[in-house]
Amino acid sequence: KGFDEKQAMAIKDIVQEVLHSSIDHQTKVLVTKAQLEITTQQMMTHLNSVKKDLVILEKSEFSMLRSETEKQTMEIQQLKKALENELDKLKGHVRLDINLEKSRAIEAHAENEKNLQMLRNKIETDVANVRTLFESYKNDVFSHCPHSWSYSVSSAPFTDSLTNG
């Protein structure tokens, strides 16, 4: 029992149409070996171009980073120099202040020593003046009363206490 001729022709036409459609589709989707090689070459060329661009970009970026690093290093060196200069200035000012303060202290000490010596001299002068005055009074007392022994004897303890004390 099979197909009659009309059915067989219809099935053959359907199968033939499906095969042609499938072959057309395969032809459109699939490429030939030559086309594949051309496409592969184009892709390899494009890939090499991208690789070169990446290398250039890396070098450029590395160069920029190196340049930025050098710039920052120079800025750090400048800041370090400026800081060292400021520290040197500060040290100089501190030394100057210390030396000025030392000089002031030495001058104040010398002034105090001078005043102290003047005070000692004044005390010695005043003591000498008092002794001279005392001797003068003592001589006056003895010169007014040399004839009176009783008066001299009674004043002797007074003069001894003045000369000894």
TrEMBL record:
Q: What domain of life?
A: Eukaryota
Keyword annotations from UniProtKB, A to Z: Coiled coil, Membrane, Mitochondrion, Transmembrane, Transmembrane helix
InterPro entries to which the protein is assigned, alphabetical: CCDC90-like (IPR024461)
The cross-references to Pfam families, in alphabetical order and at most eight, read: CCDC90-like (PF07798)
One GO cellular-component annotation of the UniProt record comes to: mitochondrion
Question: Where located?
Answer: Membrane; Mitochondrion
What residue ranges carry the coiled-coil annotation? 66-122
Family the UniProt entry places it in: Belongs to the CCDC90 family.
Q: What is this protein called?
A: Uncharacterized protein
Organism field: Magallana gigas (Pacific oyster)
